[in-house]
Design a protein that fits this description.
Layout lengths: L8 E4 L2 E10 L15 E2 L6 E4 L3 H8 L17 E4 L3 E2 L20 E12 L2 E6 L2 E6 L4 E13 L2 E12 L9 E21 L2 E11 L1 H6 L13 E6 L10 E4 L11 E8 L21 E8 L14 E10 L3 H8 L7 E3 L6 E7 L8 E8 L11 E4 L11 E4 L19 E5 L5 E2 L4 E2 L3 E7 L3 E5 L7 E7 L2 E3 L2 E3 L4 E10 L4 E2 L15 E6 L6 E14 L7 E10 L1
Parallel strand pairs: 2-25, 18-19
Antiparallel strand pairs: 1-23, 2-36, 3-7, 4-7, 4-14, 5-9, 6-7, 7-8, 8-10, 9-10, 10-11, 11-12, 12-13, 13-14, 15-16, 16-20, 17-18, 17-21, 21-22, 24-28, 26-27, 27-35, 28-35, 29-34, 29-36, 30-31, 32-35, 33-34
């Protein structure tokens, strides 16, 4: 922003303000680049897994190869039995491999899906029920494999399940007992292929090999690394769970004239319409009450969820975002408040226009605030705050007459002085992002650079001027820390106008930049010219500060 002043006629001491958003990048402690996808539940009985443990093992047991006397072979139909609700996979097995003697016993199985969770193709679990029992008493074992599942973590798959190996008393050298257990990692997967499309997930596990845990439970009937059957599973996914992450954005957050009433538009999203319920009129008990959307001057500690009294919240302008049916009912029953109501839509969004004006009757922080409305219980998740900054008035705000003497003509007409001007600009580039704070022994710290400020003053008489800065508190939704945590170190670049750098402000010391400080100034009678001003920004935040993406508003004011 820049202001230009003429050398004669009518003038006014005016302060121009340029507001810069100062954001504390990612979280104070590590934060993901993007929010993780919400897991989706796997629908029970919506599909099945096709698996047969190990084909050669099925044939070995199903055909009772080399059954030993005196026990001999188990009767056909009793060699491999199923655990409900598993079934033999007749249709999914190539005809050439179907062994009809004995019928079905050597086929793989269909295991109905019972549930699970899918975050994405690299992170999921699908569980099944049922299984198979392998009976081979002449070889001294009964093996049960059931409740098999496929798990994928970081794109790597594994087959898990309940494995029980019973070894009776025998003369084959095997130690009697029961081995295995629940949720044994049975197989490592060489290649896991996952397709998550719409409301369905399918997983193919190729190159499955027996784990050491599985081999140990099997008493080394099979060795670790032995090839197991590939596994496939397909199932439906439940609709994504609705997640509510309240946030608000403002059409304007700085530069309001303190001597006039301005307006701004608040856009809300992620507000759960059913989160707050009425306990008293005017909303029927049990119906949703929505949130108040307020421009006001609130104390540093203002949140109802912390038990803070309403006296800490000075409301200047207010709207009430209400969901249906409460919105229509209150609008009809109380026409006098209809203009204060805005609709909180089913998707959690609303839009509200607020008046913005100063109120010097109380201390606090100007901003837009939201919190549970209509007597509902306090809801910390919906207690949000966004600071709003005014343009500080320069001087006493009164009109100042400026006199000028015009010399007599020298015959060539009146001599008009060059007008001269006072201008200042702040380099563009959006918000100043201080990145992710670093944890130290005593505080979180972060650094950055202010956008370059350039001031040019060629006015006649070279009056004094200054550029000052004041920062609001920093907010991240319902969390905040004091603007006193921000400091700066001004530094001059090219300087042809006799400017002087302001004194450094130590971050986290005293009132910091919250109390205001001079960035650059020039005394009366300075040389006509310009100056380029930079400043290193420093932030020192208490270690007790909750993690979050914090934003404050640094207002620069030029007085000349």
């Amino acid at each position: 922003m820049s202001k230009t002043f003429g050398p004669a006629g009518y003038g006014r001491l005016v302060a121009g303000a340029g507001a810069l958003a100062v954001g504390l990048g990612a979280a104070l402690v590590a934060a993901p680049a993007a929010q993780a996808a919400a897991p989706r539940d796997v629908v029970a009985d919506s599909g099945s897994a096709s698996w047969g443990f190990r084909e050669s093992f099925r044939r070995y047991v199903g055909l009772q190869t080399a059954a030993l006397p005196p026990v001999g072979a188990v009767p056909v139909g009793e060699r491999i039995t199923l655990v409900d609700p598993a079934t033999f996979d007749v249709d999914g097995t190539p005809a050439a491999t179907v062994d009809t003697t004995p019928p079905n016993e050597t086929l793989p199985y269909l295991l109905p899906v019972t549930g699970g969770s899918v975050t994405d193709a690299d992170d999921l679990a699908v569980t099944t029920s049922g299984g198979a029992v392998f009976h081979f008493p002449s070889h001294a074992f009964t093996v049960t494999v059931e409740n098999v599942g496929i798990e994928v973590a970081g794109g790597v798959g594994k087959v898990v399940g309940d494995l029980s190996v019973e070894i009776p008393e025998n003369n084959l050298g095997y130690e009697q007992g029961t081995y295995g257990g629940d949720d044994v990692v049975l197989g490592d997967v060489a290649t896991t292929t996952v397709d998550v499309s719409g409301d369905q997930v399918s997983v193919t596990a190729d190159g499955v090999t027996l784990t050491a845990a599985g081999a140990s439970a099997l008493q080394d009937f099979l060795q670790a690394g032995a090839e197991l059957d590939d596994l496939t599973v397909t199932a439906d996914l439940a609709a994504p769970a609705q997640t509510w992450n309240p946030s608000v954005s403002l059409s304007k957050s700085a530069g309001f004239d303190p001597a006039a009433t301005g307006t701004l538009t608040v856009t809300g999203s992620g507000f759960d319409p059913a989160a707050n319920t009425a306990t008293r009129p005017p909303i029927t008990t049990g119906q949703p009450t929505g949130v108040y959307v307020v421009f006001g001057k609130f104390a540093q500690d203002w949140r109802p969820s912390d038990g803070v009294a309403s006296s800490a919240r000075k409301v200047v302008s207010q709207k009430w975002a209400l969901p249906e049916p409460s919105y229509s009912q209150l609008k009809a029953s109380n026409p006098s408040v209809a203009e204060q109501l805005v609709l909180l839509k089913e998707d959690g969004t609303f839009s509200a226009d607020l008046d913005v004006k100063t109120d010097d009757s109380v201390d606090g922080v100007y901003g837009v605030y939201t919190y549970a409305a209509g007597g509902a219980a306090a809801n910390a998740a919906q207690e949000l705050a966004v600071p709003v900054a005014f343009t500080p008035a320069g001087g006493d705000g009164e009109n100042v007459d400026v006199e000028v003497t015009v010399p007599e003509s020298d015959g060539g007409g009146p001599v008009e002085p060059e007008p001269g001007e006072f201008t200042w600009t702040v380099a563009s580039g959006g918000a100043v992002n201080l990145g992710t704070a670093t944890q130290g022994d005593a505080a979180f710290t972060a650094t950055g650079d202010l956008r370059r400020v350039t001031v040019t003053d060629t006015r006649a008489g070279s009056p004094a001027w200054s550029v000052t800065g004041t920062v609001t508190d920093f907010f991240a939704g319902s969390r905040s820390f004091s603007g006193s945590a921000l400091g700066w170190t001004p530094a001059l670049g090219a300087n042809t106008g006799g400017a002087v750098a302001g004194t450094a402000v130590v971050a986290g010391s005293g009132s910091g930049l919250k109390g205001g400080a001079t960035l650059v100034s020039a005394p009366e009678g300075h040389a006509a010219g310009s100056v380029a001003v930079d400043a290193g920004l420093d932030l020192s935040i208490p270690l007790s500060t909750p993690a979050g993406d914090y934003t404050g508003v640094l207002t620069l004011t030029a007085v000349g």
